[in-house]
Design brief:
Helix content: 25-40%
Oligomer: single chain
Distance between the termini: 7 Å
Radius of gyration: 18 Å
């Protein structure tokens, strides 16, 4: 397992005091890093691909907001967030449906019921890989989907080898009322390739 895919431990985190002192620089570094880890899918959805750095930022922010410093509380946060770090043979992403207007969002979340099961990644020359969505808890109910979903995309060794050899990477959605198919740009592709062992 590479450094980018290793699970976070309490020793990897800054104390609340150190994080307060370093937050501005750390946040700027993470935001620059995240620019190459997001892929819009049409006008109203985006995949935000997670890795160790993005998850460390999420954990540090939760500890700061909640003022958590007890070892058991830190361990709980790590247990909740560590599963979102890719393990070298997959990508993990936060999928967001983005409708700024609240009434439109409510209506669209009803129309887009089940969309989380129609998101895919594709490596040229290989079958598409459908998202495994919301392994921790179900985020949709019988009437509507959620605006946020957590996804895992499992890649086999042949797909990884093809990507390393320059194969095109695509992402898409095949929902009845929302369709998208996008070629992943080179900077995002390079960033995602670094997640694979």
């Amino acid at each position: 397992m590479s450094e980018r895919t290793a699970r976070l431990a309490a020793d990897d985190l800054l104390t609340l005091e150190d994080y307060a002192r370093n937050r501005k620089e750390f946040r700027a570094r993470v935001l620059a890093h995240k620019r190459d880890r997001q892929q819009p899918l049409g006008d109203n959805s985006t995949l935000y691909f997670e890795d160790r750095l993005t998850i460390q930022y999420q954990v540090q922010e939760m500890l700061r907001i909640e003022r958590l410093f007890e070892p058991d509380a830190i361990a709980e946060e790590l247990a909740a967030y560590n599963p979102l770090i890719p393990d070298g043979a997959n990508w993990k992403a936060t999928f967001m449906l983005e409708f700024p207007d609240e009434s439109e969002r409510r209506e669209q979340l009803r129309r887009l019921h089940g969309i989380e099961h129609t998101v895919w990644v594709g490596v040229a020359g290989h079958a598409r890989v459908k998202a495994i969505a919301n392994e921790d808890i179900e985020r949709s109910d019988d009437e509507k989907t959620s605006a946020v979903h957590f996804m895992r995309f499992e890649l086999d060794p042949a797909m990884i080898a093809a990507l390393r050899s320059g194969a095109e990477l695509m992402v898409g959605i095949d929902h009845d009322v929302y369709w998208a198919e996008v070629n992943v740009n080179e900077s995002v592709r390079r960033s995602l390739l670094a997640d694979l062992d």
